[in-house]
C-alpha cells in the first residue's frame, strides 16, 4: 500500500500541466484516503475478531455450571472491557462492543449473555445502538431488560430515539413504565414530546412515571410542559406536585424566578398537602428572597408554633444578602419576644455585618432583647464587642451580666484574645476610671482569659501575680494554675521561693501541681523542681517535695528519698509522708529503707505498711522479686499485724517459692487467716506451670478455709484445670510498621520460623475477667500486633481429639509444626468459636498458636476435648 | 414538623401518655412517631435505643422478611405493654411495602436501614411524604443518588440524619477540632484505614425462604437468583461486599472514616479534585498498604493528599505533628498536642448530644443535624469516587462544585446506575 502511494506521487511529479496536476493529485489523495480508511476498517475488523476469539475462549468459564467457577473468567472479561474503555481508545472499545453483540445471541448460555450485556451498560456507544435495539424485542424478559439498561446509559443520542420508538410500539404496561424511566434516566430534551404525551395516559403508572421523567429533564421547555398541565386526576396528584416543585427549580436555575414563584404560590394554597406547602414556602423564599421576610416574620409570631419553627429555619437558610438588615429592622418593630427570636436567628445565620447595629442598640430595648443581643454576639462577635460586653458583664442586670460573661468566654475570634490581653497588661486604671472599677474589670478579664484558654496569656498573669494588689495576684496565680504550661514551671518556682506568705505559697504550690499534672510527661519536670530545692527555705522545700510526690518518676523519687534523711524535722516528716503516698511500686525499696533506718517508730511502721501495699500492685517485678521483698518486710516487721499484711500480700507473688513458703504458715495460728487466701492465689497463678503442687495446695485451702469467697475461687480454679488448657508460655507482641492485624496474620515472626532465641515467658492463670480466657500483653492492650502461645500436649496414646479455640482477634494453629487451622478474623473471644479435629501422636505434641490483635481486648481461650466433647483424660500439658 | 404533634388528635394509634404518670415519657402528642424500614443488622441494632427513647414511639415496622417485621412489632408491643393495656397504644403495624407505610399521615419520621441500594429511593419517598429520615450510612449507592437526596431534603424542608455516628463521638470531634485549629500545623496528608471496594457476588441459587419477598429485596438492583448469603448483612461476605447492592468497605466503613477525614479537613460539601488508583489493588476485604502501592490516592485542591490505607482509623499528618483517631482512642504526636484544651479562639465544632438525640432535637427545631444529608452525600461521594477509580482502573479528575468527572465519559457513567423498573430516582 505504501509503495503504491509513492508510485502515484512519482507519477504526479512527471506531469507538466498545473490543472491536470491538481486533479491528479486530488484523485490520488482520495485514493490514499480510501486506502487508509480501508486499512482502518480492516484493523477494526481484526480487532473485533480478536475480541470475539477472546470471548469464545472465556465463554465456557463465564457460564460455568458451578457459579463460583464463573468468577475468574468473568473478571478477566471485565478487565478487558475496562482496558478497552479507557479514554483515548475509542476504536478498541467500539470493536469490543461489536464483538459482544456478535457473540451474545441466543445460541450461548444465558449466564454468558447476561454477563456480556451487562458490560455494555458502561462501555457501549453509538456502534451498539442497533444491536441493542433488536434485543429490546427479545423473547426473554431478562435480555430485554439488559438491553434497556445498556441503552439507558449509552451516550449516543440515537439510544434515546430507540427507546422512544420502543415506547411508542408497546402496550405492555410494565414495559412502558420501564421505557419511560429509561428516558427519564437519560433526561434529554428530545424525549419531551414522547413523555409529555404520556402525562395524561390512562395508565396511572405510565402517567406517573412520565411526570417524574419529565421533571428530570433540566430544560425550561420540560419544566413549562409540566407547569402547563391541567389539574391532575386524583391518582396523579402527588406525582404532579412533585413534578411542579422540580420544574420550578429547573426554571429558577435558568434565571426565571418570576415563573418559579408563581408555581410555588399555587402550591402554597391552603388546600395543598402540608408537605407540599412546606416545600412551596421554602421555594417562595428562594425565589423571592428578602421580600418574603415579612411573611416569614408573620408566621414566626403567628398562632401556629409548627409554622413558626419552619419560618425560623427559612429565615436562617435565606441566602439573600439583604436579609439580615431587613430582619433586624423588622425585629425592632415587633414585640420583645419576636425581636429576641429574630436576634437569635440573625446570630445563627452567622452574618457579622449585623454586629455593629446589635452593639449600638445594646441597652436601647428591654432586658429580654438585651440578653438575646448579648447571646447573639457570642456567635458573630469580634474584638469590637469586648468593651460593650465588659460593660454589661459588670453593669447590667443579673441575666445580662451572665449572658455577657458567657459571650466573652466563647466568641471565636483571636482578636478578642488580643484585646483582653492588652487590657490585662494595663498596670493602672485608665484616666477617669476608679481603682475599684479597674480591679473589677481586671478580675473579669482574667477570668475570661482563663475560660477562653487564651494562648500566650501566662506572662501577663505572672506580672499580675507579682503585683501589689493581693486580690489580683490571687486571681493571677489561680489563672496560672489553669493556663500555664511546662515551660512556665521555673517562673512559678521563682515566685514560690520568693514568697514569704504561707497562704500564697500554698496557692502557688497548687498552681504548680496543676501545671505538672497537665503536662504530657509530669515526671520529666523533676529537674527544675530538684534544682529549686537548693535555694529553698524549709516551707518552700516542703512544698516542692509535695509537688515531687505528685509527679513521681525516678528523679523525684531519688530527691524525696534523699530528703527522708534531711536534718530539718519538718522537711524530713514531709518527705516520709510524701513517700508513703507514692503510687508507683518503684518506691518500695526506699520505703523499706525508711522502715529500717528512720529513728521514728511511727514513720518506720508506716513506711513498711506502704511498701507492702505497693508490693501488691501490678508491676514489672518478677513474682520471685515480689516474694523476696515481702519476705524481708515480714522479718523487718515487729507488729504481728504488719507481718500478717505481708503474708496476705504474698498472694500477689505467683511463684513456687512463695507457695512453698506459705504452705507451713497455714499451721501458724497468728498467720493462718492471712496465709489461706494467699496460698489460694499463688496456687492459681502457678497452676499452669506447676499443676500438681497447685492442685494439692488448693485442696488443702478448700478443706481449711471458712471464707466463702476463697472457697468459691478455689472451686473455680479446680474447675478451670479440668476444662481448659492452662499450661502456656507466651512470646510477644510482634509488630511490623504499617501492618495491621489482618496483614500480620500472614507475616512469620520468630516463634513460627523456629528461631530458638525468641524469649518465652510463663502465662499466669487468672480467674478474671473470665475463667479460661487468657489476656495477652499489657493493659491497655497495644495497637495492631500479634503474639504466640505454646504448650506441649503429652498424649498417653495416639488418638483423635477436638481442639477448640476462641480468640480476639485471629488465630493460626500449628500442631507438631504443621498448620492445622487458620482463621484471619476480627472478633471477641468466645470459647469454642473454632473447632479443629486433630490427630495426637503418642508422646509429646508441640502446639503453637498465633493470636492477632487489631484493637480492644487481646485474649484467647483453648480446650482439648475427646470427639464426644468430654475433657480428655489421657493427656497432660507441659508449658516449657 | 411533627404531624402527630401538630394534629394532636390525628394519631390513631396512640393517645397521651401523660395520664399514665410515667414521668420519663413525653406525652404522646409530643412524641415523635417512627416507622422502621429494614430491620436487619443495623435496624435491629437501633431497635433497643429507639424503643427506650422516651421521645420516640415506634408505630410501624417494614421489612421484606415477615419474621423480622413480626419480631420488631412484637418487641415494640412488649415495650409499650403498659400503654397498650391502658388503651393508649394500639400496636406496631407491619408492612412488606414501605410505600404503604409512608402513606400513613400519623408517622413523623422513618429509619431507613435497608441495604444501600435502597437508601435513596426509600429516603426520597419518605421526604416527599413529609417524613424526616434517619438514613443508615453510606447514604447512597451512587454519587447521583446522594445529591438527589440532598435536593429532595432541601426541596421538602426535611431533616435527614446520615448514620455516620462517629461525628457524634467526642474523640472524633476533638481530633477534627485540633486539626482544624492548627495543632499539627499545616495538614499535609491523611491516611484512612478501611478495606477495599465491593465486587461481583457469586452465589448459587437457593429456594427463597418462606416469608421473604426476594423480588422486593432486590428492588432497583439487577435481577439475581436468591441466595441466603447474597442478602445477608454479614460483614465478611454478605450484600455489603456485592457491587450491585453496596460499595463494599470503601463505602460501608468509608462512610465513617473518610467522613471524619472530610470533617477534619473542613471539606464538607466539597471534596478531592483528583483520584488516582493504585497499580496494585488491595486484597479482597483487606485494608490496603500504601507503602506497597496498594491504596488509591486522593488529592485536594489545597495540596493535601489523602491515602486509602496506612492508618488505624484516620491519621492526620501535619507539619508539626500527627493525630490518629479511631473508636475508643485518640493519639497525638507529640503527646502535648492532645493535652492542652482548646481555647475560645480555636475551631469548635458542633458537639452533638448523641447521634439519635441530635436527630430528634432537629426534628423538633427543624435545624440541620450533625450529619446532614449534604454531609452524608459529600462523604459518600469521596468513597464512591474511590470505587469508580478502583473499578475502572483510571485516574479521575473531579470537580467538586459541578460534581462531575472531568474528561472521562466512561468513568462518568458510573456516577449513576440504571435501576430495575419500576424503580427510578
Fraction in beta strands of chain B: 15-25%
- Global morphology of chain A: flat
Decide which structural class fits the backbone of chain B. alpha/beta
Task: Give the integer mean of the pLDDT values of chain B.
Answer: 91
Contiguous uncertain segments of 5+ residues of chain A: 1-22
- Helical element count of chain A? 43
**Radius of gyration of chain B, CA atoms, in whole angstroms:** 22 Å
Which chain pair has the greatest contact?
A-B, 86 and 69 residues
- How many helices of chain B? 15
Structural class assignment of chain A: alpha+beta
Helicity of chain B, in percent?
Answer: 25-40%
Oligomer: heterodimer
Task: Give an overview in words.
The complex is a heterodimer of chains A (880) and B (425). With 880 residues, chain A is α+β, with helices and mostly antiparallel strands. Chain A contains 43 helices and eleven strands. In chain A, the strands form two sheets. In chain A, strands 1, 2, 4, 6, 7, 9 and 11 form a seven-stranded antiparallel sheet that branches. In chain A, strand 6 and strand 7 form a beta hairpin. Chain A starts with a helix and ends with a strand. The N terminus of chain A is likely disordered. Chain B is an alpha/beta fold and 425 residues long. Helix content of chain B is 33%, strand content 16%. In chain B, the strands form two sheets. In chain B, strands 13-12-11-7-10-9-8-14-15 form a nine-stranded mixed sheet. A six-stranded parallel sheet of chain B has the order 3-2-1-4-5-6, sandwiched between helices. In chain B, strand 4, helix 6 and strand 5 form a beta-alpha-beta unit. In chain B, helix 6 packs parallel to helix 7 and helix 8 runs parallel beside helix 11. Chain B is globular, with a radius of gyration of 22 Å. Chain B starts with a helix and ends in a 13-residue tail after the last helix. Chains A and B meet through helix 3, helix 5, helix 7, helix 9 and helix 11 of A and helix 1 and helix 7 of B.
Amino acid at each position: 500500500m505504501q509503495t503504491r502511494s509513492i508510485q502515484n506521487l512519482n507519477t504526479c511529479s512527471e506531469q507538466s500541466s498545473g490543472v491536470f496536476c491538481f486533479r491528479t493529485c486530488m484523485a490520488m489523495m482520495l485514493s490514499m484516503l480510501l486506502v487508509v480508511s480501508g486499512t482502518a476498517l480492516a484493523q477494526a475488523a481484526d480487532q473485533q475478531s480478536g475480541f470475539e476469539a477472546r470471548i469464545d475462549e472465556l465463554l465456557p468459564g463465564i457460564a460455568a455450571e458451578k457459579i463460583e467457577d464463573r468468577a475468574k473468567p468473568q473478571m478477566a472479561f471485565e478487565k478487558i472491557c475496562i482496558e478497552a474503555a479507557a479514554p483515548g481508545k475509542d476504536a478498541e472499545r467500539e470493536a469490543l462492543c461489536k464483538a459482544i453483540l456478535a457473540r451474545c445471541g441466543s445460541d450461548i448460555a444465558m449466564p454468558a449473555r447476561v454477563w456480556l450485556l451487562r458490560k455494555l451498560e458502561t462501555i457501549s456507544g453509538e456502534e451498539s445502538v442497533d444491536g441493542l435495539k433488536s434485543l429490546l424485542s427479545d423473547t426473554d424478559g431478562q435480555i430485554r431488560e439488559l438491553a434497556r439498561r445498556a441503552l439507558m446509559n449509552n451516550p449516543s443520542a440515537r439510544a434515546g430515539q430507540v427507546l422512544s420508538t420502543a415506547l411508542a410500539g408497546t402496550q405492555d404496561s410494565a414495559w412502558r413504565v420501564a421505557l419511560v424511566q429509561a428516558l427519564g434516566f437519560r433526561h434529554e430534551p428530545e424525549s419531551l414530546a414522547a413523555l409529555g404525551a404520556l402525562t395524561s395516559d390512562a395508565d396511572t403508572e405510565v402517567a406517573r412515571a412520565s411526570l417524574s421523567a419529565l421533571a428530570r429533564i433540566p430544560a425550561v421547555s420540560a419544566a413549562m410542559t409540566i407547569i402547563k398541565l391541567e389539574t391532575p386526576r386524583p391518582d396523579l396528584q402527588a406525582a404532579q406536585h412533585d413534578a411542579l416543585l422540580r420544574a420550578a427549580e429547573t426554571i429558577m436555575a435558568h434565571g426565571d424566578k418570576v415563573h418559579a414563584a408563581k408555581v410555588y404560590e399555587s402550591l402554597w394554597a391552603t388546600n395543598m398537602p402540608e408537605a407540599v406547602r412546606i416545600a412551596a414556602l421554602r421555594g417562595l423564599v428562594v425565589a423571592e428572597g428578602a421580600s418574603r421576610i415579612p411573611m416569614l416574620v408573620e408566621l414566626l409570631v403567628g398562632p401556629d408554633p409548627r409554622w413558626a419553627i419552619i419560618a425560623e429555619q427559612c429565615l436562617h437558610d435565606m441566602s439573600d444578602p439583604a436579609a439580615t438588615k431587613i430582619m433586624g429592622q423588622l425585629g425592632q418593630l415587633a414585640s420583645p419576644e419576636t425581636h429576641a427570636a429574630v436576634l437569635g436567628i440573625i446570630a445563627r445565620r452567622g452574618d457579622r455585618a449585623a454586629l455593629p447595629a446589635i452593639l449600638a442598640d445594646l441597652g436601647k430595648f428591654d432586658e429580654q432583647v438585651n440578653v438575646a443581643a448579648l447571646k447573639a454576639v457570642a456567635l458573630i462577635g469580634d474584638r469590637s464587642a469586648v468593651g460593650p460586653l465588659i460593660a454589661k458583664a459588670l453593669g447590667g442586670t443579673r441575666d445580662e451580666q451572665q449572658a455577657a460573661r458567657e459571650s466573652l468566654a466563647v466568641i471565636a475570634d483571636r482578636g478578642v484574645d488580643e484585646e483582653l490581653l492588652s487590657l490585662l497588661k494595663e498596670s493602672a486604671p485608665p484616666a477617669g476610671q476608679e481603682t475599684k472599677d479597674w480591679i473589677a474589670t481586671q478580675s473579669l478579664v482574667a477570668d475570661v482569659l482563663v475560660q477562653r484558654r487564651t494562648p500566650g496569656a501566662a506572662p501577663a498573669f505572672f506580672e499580675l501575680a507579682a503585683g501589689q494588689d493581693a486580690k489580683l495576684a490571687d486571681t493571677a496565680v489561680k489563672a496560672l494554675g489553669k493556663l500555664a504550661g511546662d515551660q512556665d514551671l521555673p517562673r512559678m518556682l521563682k515566685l514560690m521561693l520568693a514568697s514569704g506568705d504561707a497562704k500564697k505559697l500554698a496557692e502557688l504550690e497548687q498552681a504548680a501541681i496543676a501545671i505538672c499534672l497537665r503536662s504530657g510527661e509530669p515526671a520529666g519536670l523533676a529537674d527544675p523542681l530538684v534544682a529549686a530545692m537548693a535555694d529553698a527555705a524549709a516551707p518552700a522545700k516542703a512544698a516542692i517535695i509535695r509537688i515531687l510526690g505528685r509527679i513521681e518518676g525516678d528523679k523525684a523519687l531519688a530527691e524525696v528519698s534523699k530528703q527522708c534523711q534531711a536534718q530539718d524535722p519538718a522537711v524530713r516528716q514531709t518527705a516520709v509522708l510524701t513517700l508513703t503516698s507514692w503510687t508507683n511500686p518503684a518506691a518500695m525499696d526506699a520505703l523499706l529503707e525508711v522502715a529500717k533506718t528512720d529513728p521514728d517508730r511511727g514513720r518506720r511502721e508506716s513506711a513498711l505498711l506502704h511498701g507492702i501495699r505497693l508490693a501488691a500492685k501490678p508491676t514489672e517485678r518478677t513474682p520471685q522479686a515480689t516474694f523476696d521483698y515481702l519476705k524481708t518486710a515480714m522479718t523487718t516487721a515487729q507488729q504481728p499485724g504488719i507481718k500478717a499484711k505481708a503474708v496476705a500480700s504474698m498472694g500477689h507473688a505467683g511463684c513456687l517459692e512463695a507457695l512453698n513458703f506459705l504452705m507451713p504458715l497455714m499451721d501458724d495460728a497468728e498467720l493462718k487467716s492471712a496465709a489461706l487466701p494467699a496460698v489460694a492465689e499463688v496456687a492459681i497463678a502457678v497452676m499452669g506451670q506447676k499443676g500438681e503442687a497447685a492442685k494439692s495446695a488448693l485442696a488443702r485451702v478448700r478443706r481449711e478455709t471458712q471464707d466463702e469467697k476463697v472457697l468459691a475461687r478455689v472451686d473455680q480454679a479446680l474447675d478451670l484445670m479440668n476444662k481448659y488448657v492452662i499450661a502456656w508460655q507466651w512470646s510477644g507482641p510482634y509488630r511490623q510498621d504499617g501492618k495491621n492485624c489482618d496483614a500480620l496474620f500472614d507475616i512469620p515472626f520468630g516463634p513460627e520460623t523456629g528461631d530458638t532465641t525468641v524469649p518465652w515467658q510463663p502465662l499466669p492463670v487468672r480467674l478474671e475477667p473470665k475463667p479460661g480466657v487468657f489476656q495477652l500483653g499489657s493493659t491497655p492492650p497495644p495497637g495492631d500486633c500479634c503474639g504466640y502461645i505454646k504448650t506441649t500436649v503429652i498424649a498417653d496414646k495416639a488418638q483423635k481429639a477436638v481442639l477448640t479455640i476462641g480468640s480476639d482477634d485471629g488465630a493460626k494453629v500449628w500442631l507438631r509444626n504443621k498448620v492445622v487451622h487458620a482463621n484471619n478474623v476480627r472478633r471477641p473471644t468466645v470459647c469454642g468459636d473454632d473447632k479443629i479435629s486433630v490427630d495426637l501422636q503418642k508422646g509429646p505434641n508441640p502446639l503453637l498458636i498465633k493470636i492477632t490483635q487489631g484493637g480492644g481486648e487481646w485474649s484467647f481461650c483453648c480446650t482439648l476435648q475427646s470427639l464426644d466433647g468430654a475433657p480428655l483424660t489421657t493427656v497432660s500439658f507441659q508449658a516449657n | 414538623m411533627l404531624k402527630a404533634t401538630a394534629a394532636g388528635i390525628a394519631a390513631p394509634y396512640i393517645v397521651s401518655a401523660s395520664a399514665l404518670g410515667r414521668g420519663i415519657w413525653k406525652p404522646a402528642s409530643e412524641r415523635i412517631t417512627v416507622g422502621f424500614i429494614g430491620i436487619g443488622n443495623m435496624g435491629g441494632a437501633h431497635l433497643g435505643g429507639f424503643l427506650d427513647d422516651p421521645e420516640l414511639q415506634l408505630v410501624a415496622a417494614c421489612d421484606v422478611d415477615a419474621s423480622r417485621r413480626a419480631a420488631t412489632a412484637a418487641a415494640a408491643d412488649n415495650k409499650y405493654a403498659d400503654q397498650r393495656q391502658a388503651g393508649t397504644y394500639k400496636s406496631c403495624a407491619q408492612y412488606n411495602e414501605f410505600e404503604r407505610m409512608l402513606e400513613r399521615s400519623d408517622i413523623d419520621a422513618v429509619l431507613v436501614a435497608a441495604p444501600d441500594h435502597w437508601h435513596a429511593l426509600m429516603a426520597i419517598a419518605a421526604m416527599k411524604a413529609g417524613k424526616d429520615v434517619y438514613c443508615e450510612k453510606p447514604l447512597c449507592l451512587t454519587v447521583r443518588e446522594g445529591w438527589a437526596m440532598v435536593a429532595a431534603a432541601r426541596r421538602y424542608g426535611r431533616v435527614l440524619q446520615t448514620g455516620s455516628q462517629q461525628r457524634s463521638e467526642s474523640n472524633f470531634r476533638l481530633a477534627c477540632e485540633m486539626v482544624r485549629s492548627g495543632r499539627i500545623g499545616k495538614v499535609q496528608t491523611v491516611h484512612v484505614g478501611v478495606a477495599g471496594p465491593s465486587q461481583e457476588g457469586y452465589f448459587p441459587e437457593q429456594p427463597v425462604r418462606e416469608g421473604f419477598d426476594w423480588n422486593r429485596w432486590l428492588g432497583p438492583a439487577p435481577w439475581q437468583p436468591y441466595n441466603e448469603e447474597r442478602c445477608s448483612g454479614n460483614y465478611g461476605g454478605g450484600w455489603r461486599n456485592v457491587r450491585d447492592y453496596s460499595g463494599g468497605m470503601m463505602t460501608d466503613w468509608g462512610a465513617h472514616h473518610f467522613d471524619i477525614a472530610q470533617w477534619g479537613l473542613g471539606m464538607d460539601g466539597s471534596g478531592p479534585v483528583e483520584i488516582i488508583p493504585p497499580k496494585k489493588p488491595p486484597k479482597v476485604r483487606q485494608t490496603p498498604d500504601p507503602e506497597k502501592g496498594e491504596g488509591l490516592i486522593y488529592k485536594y485542591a489545597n495540596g493535601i493528599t489523602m491515602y486509602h490505607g496506612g492508618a488505624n482509623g484516620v491519621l492526620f499528618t501535619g507539619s508539626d505533628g500527627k493525630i490518629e483517631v479511631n473508636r475508643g482512642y485518640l493519639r497525638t504526636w507529640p503527646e502535648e498536642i492532645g493535652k492542652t484544651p482548646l481555647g475560645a479562639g480555636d475551631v469548635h465544632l458542633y458537639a452533638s448530644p448523641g447521634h439519635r438525640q441530635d436527630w430528634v432535637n432537629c426534628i423538633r427545631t427543624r435545624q440541620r443535624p450533625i450529619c446532614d444529608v449534604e454531609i452524608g452525600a459529600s462523604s459518600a461521594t469521596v468513597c464512591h469516587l474511590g470505587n469508580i477509580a478502583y473499578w475502572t482502573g483510571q485516574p479521575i479528575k473531579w470537580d467538586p462544585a459541578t460534581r462531575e468527572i472531568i474528561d472521562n465519559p466512561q468513568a462518568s457513567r458510573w456516577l449513576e446506575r440504571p435501576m430495575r423498573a419500576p424503580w427510578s430516582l
